[in-house]
Specification:
single chain, alpha+beta, Rossmann fold, Methionyl-trna Synthetase, domain 2, Isoleucyl-tRNA Synthetase, Domain 1, six-stranded antiparallel beta sheet, four-stranded parallel beta sheet, 41% helix
């Protein structure tokens, strides 16, 4: 028999604060987590639903360097954007915290110190890559090189994003520092390692024997890692941005982000409990509390192996009962890519589809990547809205309410003449709540949604079969019974749809003019009393027209086109073929001076320059942003190929080319005529 828990601590993966939230994040983590939490709350359960921004790590520091900002400025911007988007979308966190908060720093430091004092770490000196020019050790993500597996030249030190191979920096061919562009050297450094291998026997028992009920994708990935043998993992890093390691001799080191981030769930709970006057330890250290982590499949190892082992080592914490991780959601048959802007961003959706939060929630749940990767398409989005939400759910409720206003002045009629067809529908109605419960308790959200919609289908078919609009002249009492049953189904839908479609539930409760009911009342056919006055009918959903979907598809096509243009943008290459003098004199090379420079929005490579070439000012795009910041280019004298045919890139016409020299290490240097030359002077 399943254990009964007094309370539930439910975490959703901390979104990384270097970019906004997209539909892949929603489908994989936040929508299913919110559905489950709302379901538990409707049942009267004590729930702490915690999340927050993950604000430390290498990627934040890299973005800050690239944008000429401090890391704090970067995370402040994205934290606010993410938090606001979640709130508008109806994700019902008890608290949305952040890892740059003082309380989180204290919590993570205390956790580390406890393990350190208990002798749970080993101090290990090893050789790591070091950038001599920048005087800094390099985290894996600070290093790029050629992948030994697929020969991709832009592979990171921890993973090749082209073939997906997990790497270590030492495996890269021709590794380069992303800070200076120089080849790094190996240098000794000391770090604190957590001996994960010592917890392998416990993990084998706890996961492989005690939690065989976990989802196959989660269980399988854990088994693979454990079977391959676990190794000690460093819990500290040589970085300047993060939580300082709170032990002597650790100057210039911070806690590893994957040590720091999961503790964000604990610090968020502490902050929430402080605000609510609760004891936070009840939610993390009590055996009658159930801990659940909602995550994507890329975080399984950290949440199922590393973090539980750390909790076990600390000694006073509970470990997760389940980690219902999902697979990935694709977009129009292509992998979602934030760097290529191939995504549907939540904040943009909320602006472009006002008051349609539930449509996206519905579609993402119907297509939830629960057991394998799934796909989101705008055509499917439109079809599910028009054919299911509008034509079935909305149509049924609207007809029931409109007919009640038309024939009974908007008052719920008596059910005095139940026929077999009515009894059959009522019997079916009573089975639906349990079907939804069983599915949700097993984290089968698609199945639960289908069961909820099954009730709407039953109601829609019931009205179509009984046709009260035809019976009204012959038997008003019979019509009253039919509409009473239809309205009771509608009232049940207001309860059962709330976890999935909270905005619709609220709207439906308003139309029915009823009190909000809890889950235990679902399945009853007396939720609305006789003569209860309804409010006027209101459409729950509206049809989405072809042109709206076409706009979104065209937006993606434009993104795809821009990516192709960027990838095909002219690159500086060494001359390969011999030319004659006549070919050379065709080139009009001029002295230019850069007046303005800025990054091209949504491009990782291009900078946009305005260049004075004497008789006119040109707009020129150049793919050099990874080598130069816009600010350092302003005022520089450059050589411009002035008679190169204009070319449109990323929506802007480039009117020439700037000349750069490429050093042996791949670093670019502007070809400069010297400050004494006049703008527009011909180079001959």
């Amino acid at each position: 028999m399943a254990k009964k828990f007094k309370r539930h601590t439910i975490s959703a993966a901390l979104p990384y604060a270097n970019g906004p939230v997209h539909i892949g994040h929603l489908a994989g983590v936040y929508v299913p987590a919110d559905i489950y939490v709302r379901y538990l709350r409707n049942k009267g359960e004590d729930v702490a639903f915690v999340c927050g921004s993950d604000e430390h790590g290498v990627a934040i520091e890299l973005r800050a360097r690239k944008e000429g900002k401090t890391p704090q400025e970067v995370v402040d911007f994205y934290h606010d954007k993410i938090k606001s988007s979640f709130e508008k979308f109806g994700i019902s966190f008890n608290i949305y915290h952040r890892t740059s908060a003082k309380l989180h720093h204290e919590t993570a430091s205390e956790f580390f110190e406890k393990l350190y004092k208990d002798g749970k770490f080993t101090e290990t000196t090893s050789e790591q890559f070091y950038d001599e020019k920048e005087k800094q050790f390099l985290a894996d993500r600070y290093i790029k090189g050629t992948c030994p597996n697929c020969s991709f030249s832009e592979a990171y030190g921890d993973q090749c994003e082209n073939c997906g191979t997990t790497l270590s920096p030492s495996e890269l061919i021709n590794p380069k520092s992303m800070l200076s562009g120089e080849a790094p050297i190996m240098k000794e450094t000391k770090h604190w390692y957590f001996p994960l291998d010592q917890y392998e026997p416990w993990l084998k028992q706890w996961i492989l024997e005690d939690h065989k009920e976990w989802k196959a994708n989660v269980y399988g990935q854990c088994k693979s890692w454990i079977d391959n043998g676990l190794k000690p993992r460093p819990m500290t890093r040589d970085l300047s941005w993060g939580i300082p390691v709170p032990v002597e001799g650790a100057e210039g080191k911070v806690l590893y982000v994957w040590f720091d981030a999961p503790i964000g769930y604990i610090s968020a709970t502490r902050e929430w409990a402080k605000q609510e006057g609760k004891n936070w330890e009840d939610y993390w250290k009590s055996d009658d509390t159930r801990l659940l982590h909602f995550i994507g499949k890329d975080n399984i190892v950290f949440h199922c192996i590393t973090f539980p082992a750390l909790l076990k080592a600390e000694g006073s914490y509970i470990v997760p009962e389940n980690v219902p991780a999902n697979e990935f959601l694709n977009l129009e048959n292509n992998k979602i890519s934030t760097s290529r802007n191939w995504a549907v961003w939540l904040h943009e959706y909320l602006e472009e589809f006002p008051d349609k939060q539930d449509v996206l929630r519905y579609v993402l749940t119907a297509n939830a990547p629960e057991t394998s990767d799934n796909d989101f398409t705008w055509k499917d989005f439109q079809t599910r809205n028009n054919s299911e939400l509008v034509a079935i759910f909305g149509n049924f409720v609207n007809r029931a309410v409109v007919l009640t206003h038309k024939y009974f002045d908007g008052k719920v009629p008596d059910a005095n003449n139940l026929q077999p067809i009515d009894q059959e529908v009522i019997t079916e109605l009573k089975t639906i709540p349990k079907k939804i419960e069983v599915a949700l308790d097993q984290f089968k959200f698609r199945e639960a949604l289908r069961s909820m919609m099954e009730l709407a289908r039953i109601g829609n078919k019931y009205l179509a079969d009984t046709e009260p609009w035809k019976l009204i002249k012959e038997d008003e009492t019979r019509v009253g019974t039919i509409l009473n049953v239809a309205l009771q189904i509608s009232a049940n839908l207001s309860i059962l749809c709330e976890p999935f479609l909270p905005f619709t539930s609220k709207k439906l409760v308003g139309v029915l003019n009823m009190d909000v009911k809890n889950w235990a009342e679902a399945g009853n056919v007396d939720l609305l009393s006789n003569s209860h006055q309804l409010n006027p009918a209101e459409l729950l959903f509206e049809k989405i027209e072809d042109k709206v979907v076409e706009t979104q598809v065209n937006k993606l096509l434009e993104t795809k086109k821009m990516n192709e243009e960027e990838n095909n943008a002219p690159e500086l290459m060494p001359l390969k073929d011999e030319i004659v003098f006549d070919d050379f004199v065709k080139m009009d090379l001029r002295v230019g001076e850069i007046k303005t420079a800025e990054k091209v929005e949504k491009s990782n490579k291009l900078l946009k320059f305005t260049v004075d070439i004497g008789h006119e000012t040109r707009t020129i795009l150049s793919g050099v942003s990874k080598f130069f910041s816009p600010e350092e280019m302003i005022g520089k004298k450059v050589v411009v190929m002035a008679n190169l045919a204009p070319r449109k890139m990323m929506g802007t016409e480039s009117q020439g080319m700037l000349l750069f020299a490429e050093n042996a290490d791949g670093k670019l240097v502007p070809v400069s005529p010297g400050d004494g030359s006049e703008n527009g002077a011909v180079i001959a």
